[in-house]
Amino acid sequence: MIKQKDSCQIKEELHEECGVFGAYNTKGGDIASWIYYGLFSLQHRGQESCGIAVSENRDIRYYKDMGLVNEVFTPENLDKLHGDIAIGHVRYSTAGSSVRANAQPLVTKYVKGQLAIAHNGNLVNAVDLREELEKNGAIFQTTIDSEVIAYLVARERVHCPSVEEAVFRAMPYIQGAYSLLVMSPRKLIAARDPYGFKPLCIGKRDDTWVVASETCALDTVGAEFIRDVEPGEIIVINEEGLASDRRYCNLAEKSGRCIFEYIYFARPDSVIDGVSVFNSRIMAGKILAQTHPVEADLVVGVPESGNDAAMGYALESGIPYGRAFVKNNYVGRTFIKPKQSMREQSVKIKLNVLKDAVKGKRIIMIDDSIVRGTTSGNIVQMLKNAGATEVHVRISSPPFKYPCYFGTDIPNRDQLIANHYTVEEIGEMMGADSLGYLDLDRMGEMVEGLEYCQACFNGDYPLAPPTRDIRGDMEF
Amino acid sequence: MIKQKDSCQIKEELHEECGVFGAYNTKGGDIASWIYYGLFSLQHRGQESCGIAVSENRDIRYYKDMGLVNEVFTPENLDKLHGDIAIGHVRYSTAGSSVRANAQPLVTKYVKGQLAIAHNGNLVNAVDLREELEKNGAIFQTTIDSEVIAYLVARERVHCPSVEEAVFRAMPYIQGAYSLLVMSPRKLIAARDPYGFKPLCIGKRDDTWVVASETCALDTVGAEFIRDVEPGEIIVINEEGLASDRRYCNLAEKSGRCIFEYIYFARPDSVIDGVSVFNSRIMAGKILAQTHPVEADLVVGVPESGNDAAMGYALESGIPYGRAFVKNNYVGRTFIKPKQSMREQSVKIKLNVLKDAVKGKRIIMIDDSIVRGTTSGNIVQMLKNAGATEVHVRISSPPFKYPCYFGTDIPNRDQLIANHYTVEEIGEMMGADSLGYLDLDRMGEMVEGLEYCQACFNGDYPLAPPTRDIRGDMEF
Amino acid sequence: MIKQKDSCQIKEELHEECGVFGAYNTKGGDIASWIYYGLFSLQHRGQESCGIAVSENRDIRYYKDMGLVNEVFTPENLDKLHGDIAIGHVRYSTAGSSVRANAQPLVTKYVKGQLAIAHNGNLVNAVDLREELEKNGAIFQTTIDSEVIAYLVARERVHCPSVEEAVFRAMPYIQGAYSLLVMSPRKLIAARDPYGFKPLCIGKRDDTWVVASETCALDTVGAEFIRDVEPGEIIVINEEGLASDRRYCNLAEKSGRCIFEYIYFARPDSVIDGVSVFNSRIMAGKILAQTHPVEADLVVGVPESGNDAAMGYALESGIPYGRAFVKNNYVGRTFIKPKQSMREQSVKIKLNVLKDAVKGKRIIMIDDSIVRGTTSGNIVQMLKNAGATEVHVRISSPPFKYPCYFGTDIPNRDQLIANHYTVEEIGEMMGADSLGYLDLDRMGEMVEGLEYCQACFNGDYPLAPPTRDIRGDMEF
Amino acid sequence: MIKQKDSCQIKEELHEECGVFGAYNTKGGDIASWIYYGLFSLQHRGQESCGIAVSENRDIRYYKDMGLVNEVFTPENLDKLHGDIAIGHVRYSTAGSSVRANAQPLVTKYVKGQLAIAHNGNLVNAVDLREELEKNGAIFQTTIDSEVIAYLVARERVHCPSVEEAVFRAMPYIQGAYSLLVMSPRKLIAARDPYGFKPLCIGKRDDTWVVASETCALDTVGAEFIRDVEPGEIIVINEEGLASDRRYCNLAEKSGRCIFEYIYFARPDSVIDGVSVFNSRIMAGKILAQTHPVEADLVVGVPESGNDAAMGYALESGIPYGRAFVKNNYVGRTFIKPKQSMREQSVKIKLNVLKDAVKGKRIIMIDDSIVRGTTSGNIVQMLKNAGATEVHVRISSPPFKYPCYFGTDIPNRDQLIANHYTVEEIGEMMGADSLGYLDLDRMGEMVEGLEYCQACFNGDYPLAPPTRDIRGDMEF
Q: Where do the Glutamine amidotransferase type-2 domain residues begin and end (chains A, B, C, D) (predicted)?
């Protein structure tokens, strides 16, 4: 099970690294507050920092800080943001770079005026690009890829007729995952890397175009889903409407579409590249029921990410779906962890078992993934202590074996339990009566035959991973 | 559906007014931090203010403030609280008295030293008691009942050999609902009113006695459930252990046990007076399926409080249990409500429909209650907009018709929709294809035959309601 | 030298314990914000907590918290306070009771409605009164004297026709120092103890009566000084104007008027009981010049409290007045004290010497008092290090030998350096070339012959000091 | 009178724009906390934002934010800053760019690693430099000159053997005022522009070199003054000690030394380029007494900046120096300004008159400058209302006629009263009985014959002022 950073850390955590949301009202209407609600519905994609940049009277202004959308934006500062074009960003990052300087959107001045950039994904050649730029005198104030992209766009813009053309010319330099929003005072540009690693979709409500990481954000602002941005496509929205530049489409040999968006990251009410996230989770559960059947009395999910696959398992197997856990929703970022005498209670504070529901029962427990495996055993034990006679664990993804370099913080190989033990051994270590993972060769059924990246499971990266890390942040 | 104040206001809200948690380590061990975790698991009972009082070296100290347990207590101030006896409180209140002065525990000095009081429930004769005390020169600095109780105990203690005896002598004056913790520097006393309105239970872990509003809090600190405090019972815990005073037990003619704890307030993993809250909700769903059957494709709950009854309905009816909604868990107290152009999005920001799950389906939607009915219709409409062909609403409680005076903020009769319209009319107003409430005469099955208070449904109050309100708060 | 707590701790500190300010607009005009500015000008009398209570539409409301007036009151909360009657309070306290519960005004409900109390001074029989009240069932939630006074007034009010009569009847029970404001929904009452320990004055501007601790607060709100409240007098202001009850006037055998208000506490622009504080300080300097003359090149004050007496010394002696120090005004309460390698810099960070002004000069350095004497030597040394050839220290008050029990935190006898060493010894310990204190028998010239309390210098208390301390605070 | 922004706004305000402080312990000792105290003593040079960057183990880290040193740095974050090299900055700015992004030091990565820059002064060709850099692809994230300087240094460093050489090569591009600190992981570099606009001095304590805007900061950390950095000089401090590069010294035709540092900006305990600031103010007062004598009873300063010149006037004229005002030191940045009925009190809240000191007297009132002249009249009127029979105003600087482009926010010509009225007219408008300014041709006596910039008085700029403004900030 993989959980949001701020409120649900029950055991291991994986994180999406960002969400973006932009809007353009072509009649000049003020849509700044839309970004607030859009980011709010993308909060699961990043809980560390957030920001909004607006273009008001062809002047770009912004506000960003560490914290949840709810915390960063107050009625006072939201009231100061107005504009007919606006973009926003929510961000997660690994500990080292959780600093204010890295909050997005990145707003800069460059040769043609102002530019705001919001980016979801990870470049694999960021270090090389930085070095090359530094060799030409560049200075870097952050460790985010958006700053690299801003430089590349600025560099191209010097010799190039429009900002969208500068984005087009910068793209060949940028290798890796990016779902990108670029706002100039007059234009909203969206670009998705040719591999399509990260989702990006287009919606519309009346005179307002919306671009967002997930369709759930379109629903939130009442926008109708129009279509996904295609891998390699550049979208330009200006007063006259939306135009598309497909010169880079169909260039990637392999798809980079992240299967883990379906397994865990995305909100279940989103539809990515035509496939419902919810349906894909139900399907994962069904496949598990077919491939790893077992006799039992109850199918339960580890809340909340395991619930949908559990429902799928129940539907397919005919074993009743039920509930075994109560999660405490009040565990926030400021939660004080127990020490000494209370340490063994750590999981229980966040997750309690419904004893009456599991006592004397054979349980099938569905979770979305196992990373380090350190606390999964605790949960199995909690079920047994509550009287479950058997606990069969089913995981709605294949075993993690390789790190991700494209915007997900799957840790390095040493820390992944599946690199050290067999499935049987892991099951035993957890105290489970059986353990079954989703079969790699059936995973494609989850996404109705779409192509996707499964490198975290089989190491087959669509793009060569980076060989060096970026140097650490300086702010603290 | 009735929701927690801070994070889940989807439509109408009802609130529990408090939760209490106390602990005593009879070997002198420090259990102050237990209260933090105990309160944390009772946070659903009150999100407005909270506090902890400890007895360290026979000296009582406290800290309390407005906010969630997570917000009020920091590592710094929690580290300053130590003691082998401690009590804590979480509080909800109606707007007027949401002031810092009213946070609990109330800590006072009186004739025999120090006293800390934490109280769940509402007295019905508080105004009379205040007037009587004022006529003898009392001054009041808050509008909470704990202050009245402190006065009564202090008054008795002048002529009485022990604090527990003072509590005993004060009880006849106190009419209404109270699950009460009283801490002196050397003793922890718990008392439950003879009607047993509010839950209160006893647990133990090694040398530590725990008293809490709900058993889920015992689980959180790893304490074993011993038994419920009986209606009318006074429990005294001191260095020598636990003693019970049952002189007031069995005195009430009617039970005041709040059925709404089972329907909505309590956490599903709690067991109150021997009945599992989870089971009672499953049972409510089953009864609904028996009494209000309908042909349909899917049974769904309005999250999260409707989910358990929905599972019960599904089990009984054989119609598959499913999921129709995704709730945004990031809606906190500081959430900025949309204005103007976005207003119609208000519910959608908090609750989105899984279109793929409901499209073309006949849905049975289970919610726990209808108060004003103002937004239930929106949710029905959301399902229909998403393509549901039929929406049948089932409510896992009878229609609210009467206000509660014992610790729940059910509003006055005028605001309760069930006093103005028939069930058919309400269903029509909601746009539901049918509407069914839990039958009043079958409600008892939820609690396995326990006696209970159902005054909010039929006006049959176990104790005469108050005739006057307390005057308003002065702090703001 | 004795300094304000928050920003000027250069060496020893003494503190006034409170300031009060009240206003009543007899035509119903809103004067709530006057209290803000009045308290602001009395901030030197207490920097720990503050509060304002207003009577709006005959309903009393309040806001108070820890912090400076500037910090506690924001435009938002000040905008919520309206009324034609209002009182405010600024408070200092010794460390133990620096808790939020002790902030004033104390607002209570009692037999006849609402009551707000703000108090400057210390009762000497508070412990006895508390015990007596507790024996009748009272509970105490704070350790401030205002709570005792509120009880006494409430007790009398039960059998008494008006609140002002209740104040009158309560006064015989209250022994000690009090300059008191009592606000009922319709009246503003001011009372000063028969000894006149603490100042209290009356002003008027158009239809608004003002009562304040010092006249500087009248200036701030543009009110004209009318007269001081007499020792023992009770003032009642209602819609019809101001009335006076002098039944307790002239009852005290001795005056309790605090000479230290003139020496250090009060603002120099205040006039107390007819004597200008500024003039009294100039006079102290002149007397020092007469009684402790010395040949020198420059007279300087330790900023800021020594400056006025230094000017007086210069005027009388003919030696030029000059400046030797620059104080850093940015030392606030959150200033981080140096550790280890920087410790010897501690005084220098707050106070630097003007080397060019003192080099090669014989300096007379005036300070207002010496308490523990621990850091005065540092300042003398700083002057010598900067090149002063001689440093003659003159103190504008006699040596402190006895603690104060009436509202000043002069520490106990053991800690007062003058109880352990002769004047010569103290001078030597400081490294001064000579040391001279104000002569006790000439101190009266400072206040133009007014009677006053000089107990801190000679132990001759106008009222017997208390024999017991109040028990400690419970909040932290 | 010109006042600090945060606490003393009595009338018009002028602001210094920055202060810098750096230290290097050549034995590897931790001196991070020195920066805190150094900045603290330079707080008068900028109260808007501040920051500290350290080099610890050859890695640069920083913390900066809006607020006073006291507010930004807590024990927690100060404890995280360690290093043997460190620089800090305090900043003031005009309203538009008071944003967090503009706080300094600016810390960047560039071709050779890390770089931190802190800068006092204003470039006159910043807009041109930005445009040129942008034409080569640069992006700008702030509007501060430090970012321009960082780019120039980074650009040079690409082709140049050391960071100090890069600073050297960048300097010809940089026109305007700069007292600059540059920290690389191993070096501390200080540079002062060839005009010497802003002060910069060197101190030493044991193994630690210190570079600071003013000598008062050396005193604060116990460092001995070594010498001023010469105009045009580059200082390099590394493990081996301090080296100097004077290749740009003596290049400027005119001195840019800011006379206003002596008149108002600098702390009186500082010595700049060999002249004591205190002495220069005393001298200004003496010159005023010689050039604008008048019969009177008392010489007073408008606190606090007028006091020293007032002492000089008194010394020269033989008229006694006295005190006429009491300033409220508690007026902080969050002070709520009076509205409506209290508006006329606005000045009085901050400044009250000592009526007893001025009544019946002829007063000479010394202030340091008049900018817009809007409130000076109020102060004269306050003296007259308090009974002064005559008020003669003397200003310790010549009339302001021209704006400053080198780091002081003297407003544009239209807003300067001296451009609209004669001295006589201004005196009349203020209600003064006479008005005298310091004579421009005698001003040099203040600084003992040093060369200086007097462009704000006579428009004779040592360097051509900029023709264009930088575009506004985007953050808010």
A: 18-240
Closest chain C residue to B129 measured between Cα atoms? C111
Return the CATH fold of A271-452.
Rossmann fold (3.40.50)
Asked if B120 contacts B44 with a C-beta cutoff of 8 angstroms, the reply is no
Q: Which residues of A touch D475 (CB under 8 A)?
A: 61-63, 107
- Per the structure block, which two tokens stand in for A363? 């349980």
Residues at the binding site of B are 258, 305, 367-368, 404, 453, 456
CB contact under 8 A, B308 and A328: no
How many angstroms away from the CA of D221 is the closest CA of chain A?
25
Which two structure tokens, joined as six digits, stand for B366? Answer: 């289970």
Domain B271-450: give its CATH code: 3.40.50.2020
Q: Which residues of chain D have pLDDT under 70?
A: 1-16, 93-98, 340-341, 469-472, 476
D8 is in an annotated binding site: no
Look at residue C339 in the predicted model and tell me its pLDDT: 78
> Residue A122 in contact with residue A93, Cβ under 8 Å?
no
Asked whether the predicted pLDDT for residue B6 surpasses 90, the reply is: no
* Residue A404 annotated as lining a ligand binding site: yes
Domain with CATH 3.40.50.2020 in chain B: 271-450
CA distance B175 to C390: 79
Q: Which of A77, A154, A474 sits opposite D62 (nearest CB)?
A: A474
Could you give the residue ranges of the DSSP H alpha helices within C320-375?
346-350, 355-358
Mean pLDDT estimate for chain C: 91
Q: What is the distance in angstroms between the Cα of C387 and the nearest Cα belonging to chain D?
A: 14
Of 3.10.20.90, 3.40.50.11690, 3.90.1150.10, 3.40.50.2020, the CATH number of D271-449 is 3.40.50.2020
Give yes or no for a cis peptide into C199 (omega within 30° of 0).
no
Q: Is the CB of residue D92 less than 8 Å from the CB of residue D48?
A: yes
Greatest extent of chain C over all pairs of C-alpha atoms, in Å: 73
pLDDT value at residue A176: 95
Q: CATH 3.40.50.2020: which residues of chain D? A: 271-449
- Cβ C84 vs Cβ C25: under 8 Å: yes
**Cβ-contact A111, D137 below 8 angstroms:** yes
In DSSP terms, A236 is beta-bridged to A189, A243
**Whose structure tokens read 């199918």?**
A299
Q: What's the CA dihedral at D223, D226, D229, D233 to 10 degrees?
A: -120
| DSSP string for B46-101 | --SEEEEEEEETTEEEEEEEES-HHHH--HHHHHT---SEEEEEEE---GGG-SGG
pLDDT of residue A167: 98
pLDDT grade for B339, boundaries at 50, 70 and 90 = confident
* pLDDT reported for residue B290: 98
A258 annotated binding-site participant: yes
Please give the pLDDT value at position C226: 98
Backbone angles phi, psi at C381, to 5 degrees: -65, -40
Q: What is the pLDDT of residues A181-234, one digit of tens each?
A: 999 999 999 999 999 999 999 999 999 999 999 999 999 999 999 999 999 999
Which residue has better confidence, A382 or B343? A382
Active-site amino acid positions of D: 18
Q: Which residues of chain C have pLDDT under 50?
A: 1-12, 94-96
CATH 3.60.20.10 domain span(s) along chain A: 18-252
Cross-strand bridge partners of residue D393: D365, D435
Q: Per-residue pLDDT tens for A364-419?
A: 999 999 988 777 888 999 999 999 999 999 999 999 999 999 988 777 888 899 99
Q: CATH 3.40.50.2020 in chain A, residues? A: 271-452
Q: What tokens were used for C137?
A: 């069932």
ipTM reported for the complex, 2 dp = 0.91
* Cβ neighbours of residue A340 closer than 8 Å, sequence gap 6 or more: none
CATH number of B18-252: 3.60.20.10
